[in-house]
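Before relying on records like the one below, remember that each one covers exactly one chain. Contacts with other chains, cofactors or solvent are not represented anywhere in the record.
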Amino acid sequence: MNGKVVISVAITGSVPQKSHSPAVPITPDEQIESAHAAFEAGAALVHVHVRDEHGAPSSDPERFRRVQEGVVRHCPGMIVQFSTGGRGRGLAERGAMLFLKPDMASLATGSVNFPTSVYENPPDFVEELARAMLGFEIKPEVEVFDAAMLYNATELVKAGLLRAPLHVQFVLGLKNALPARRELLEFLARELDALLPGSTWTAAGIGRHQLTVNRWSLELGGHARTGLEDNLRFDETRLATSNAELVARVATLAVEYGRAPATADEARQLLGLGQASHV
């Protein structure tokens, strides 16, 4: 497993991307098709938001179920991760689909200012989500938009609400939150190793930082996230045509750093997950 990188693909997101590109999959069928193409290109984990028939963020468990079942059926072993993010959804809605028992779910362990809003994650709500994930045997992906969130996660481990080793995602390049600085990513990775040895991490670069952060992650021994949710732009001159195109780019980059995309089964071992379920 030495040198393997888990490629995560965030296929849709919860807010309309610039230019409303038709590349972004919206309906469950489109999301399943996009996840399958990304899986074939080397992604082992799919991060899932759903939207309603008007394209607005949704918490509809039926839509999550349809995407989950389609990915399980068409992408053998691929890790399904539900988003509990807050854009366009109230606190009461954000964990409403966890009873479907995805492999993983996102868990932001604190609040942060987004460019035009506050991403609200009060302590009691974070603890409630963590308890739900424990009960449904869902592994959280701890989302770190601010350094304090890493230390908050450590306290949740001490309280028995999170199980070590963790899997953590560092989000870099979002205005008002963590900047895209290599020194900062190096610091966060060292802190994670010191506080919670054996934990794994990935990093997401927002907007124009996506490719740069992918390179840092590959070089520093982390895992990599890509996808249209974070950034439509493939390079400085054109837009990506699909999630699969972005995944293929990371898979190719991995070779430059002496690494290789993990298969779905390898990714499950690396992240401490059980065997895949089947429809």
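The two ends are 28 Å apart (CA to CA).
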